[in-house]
Specification:
CATH class of the largest domain: Alpha Beta
Oligomer: single chain
Low-confidence stretches: 1-29
Strand content: 15-25%
Structural class: alpha/beta
CATH superfamily of the largest domain: Alpha/Beta hydrolase fold, catalytic domain
Shape: globular
Number of strands: 13
Number of domains: 2
Strand order of the largest sheet: 1-3-4-7-5-8-9-12-13
Length: 437
Amino acid sequence: MRVRVLTGAALAAVLALALTPRTTTALGRPGVTPVPCPAQTWQMGDQAFEALPDAKAFFGQYEGGIYKIEIPDNWNGELVLYAHGFVSNAGAQGSTLRVGNSPIREHQIKEGYAWAASSYRCNGYVPGQGLLDTMALTDLFTKANGGRAPQRTYLTGTSMGGHVALLGMHEFPTTFVGGLAMCPAGPELFDFFAATAGAAEVITGVTTKLDTMAADLAKMNEMLGKAPDYTDKGRQLASVEIQISGGPRPFAMEGLASGGRFAGNISPGALAGSTTPSNRAVMTTQFNYAIDDGLGLTADALNKGARRKALDAGMRDSKGPYDELVPFDGKLERPTLTMHGTGDLFVPIFLEQSLKRAVVAAGKESLLTQRIYRIAGHCGFSQPEMIKSFDDLTAWVHKGTKPAGDEIDGDLSHAGMTFTNPLRPGDPGGIRVSPRP
C-alpha cells in the first residue's frame, strides 16, 4: 500500500480551481450560499490513514479543512463522495475539524470504486458549507489521481451529511449520477424540535424565554422525567414526539431513550424569539398535534394551547439567502435513494414523508426510492443494509432500472420488513406510549 500527501504549491493550485466560483457556475443551477460558519478558530485534526490492500491513500489539508481519498488499483473510473454528519462546535474538542472514512469503504474499494471525504471548514450544523467542501473533493481527487478525472461521481452522506447529499442532488441536479442519503436530516428537522418544545410548554406549564432558557429547560426536565422512567407528563410528551415525527412505529420508544433524544428534542429558541438564521427559518404552524389515548391530555388541548412559530418568508423562501434552510422542492434529475430507521428520534422519518411529497409534486417520483429499516437510534444501519442500497443505486445508474423501495406514508406500525437485515434483537420494539397500568 502507498500513502501520498498533497502539500505546498500543488495543493494550492488544485484548491484555487476547486473553490472558485467557476466550479459552481458550470454545474447546472447556481451554487449555494452557506450559512456563515461560527466565529471561532478552527484546528486541523488528524487526517492520516492507511490504505487498504491494493489501494492508495491520499490525505492532507485544503484551504480551511482536511481530506481523505482512497483509490483502488483496479479503479473502475467512478468516484463516491462521502459527507459526514454533525460535529458539535462546543466543548474541548469543538474547534477540531475531523474527517472520517466512507462507512462501506471496504466494499467500495473491493468493487473498484474510489472514495473521498473531507472535514468541513467549520463544525456545527453546516450542510451548505459541507456541500461546497465535499464538492471540492472532485478536483482534489483528479490531482491525486494523476490528472484522471472520474467518469461518474456519486454523492453520499449520513445524518447531516444526508442533508448535504439531498441538498446537492437538488441544487446541482446534473452534477452527480446518483445520490445515497442515509438517515438524512433536512431543513424541516428544526420545525420538529420547536414543535416538541411547544408541546412541552403546554404539558409542563413552563413558558421558555431567551434570557432564562437554561433554567426553564431544567424545570421542564424535572417535571418530565427521563426516558424510559417518565413521569405522567413525560409520557404525554413522549407520545406527542412519536406522533408528530411519523406516527407509531417499531422501536420508536427505544429511539426516544437513545442518545438523550426525549429531552434533547425540546428546542424552544425559535418560539422564544431567537433570530439566528436557522431559528428564523423554523415554522410550526403546519403541525397538527396528536397524542395516544388515556394519557390525560387531548390533541385538541395541545393544538389550542401550543405556542407557534409562523413563517418567516424572508428566510424560508426559495429566494432567501441560505438554500440549506429552505424545504426541498423535489426537482431531482438523477437517481436518489434514501435509507431511514423507524426508531430514529434524532432525525425522524417524517422528513422522508416531506421529501416524498415534494418529489411527487415536482413530478420526479421516478427518481426517488426510499427504504425503511426496523432499528432503534440514529443511523444504526448494518453493513449488509448499506451495501445493498449502494449496489442497488449504482445498478440503477448503470442499467436504468429503478430499485424497489418502501411506502413511506400512512401507517408505519409494521414498516421495514423488506430491507432490514438482520432483524434486530427485540424486534419490533416499542411502537406507542400506553397508559400506566
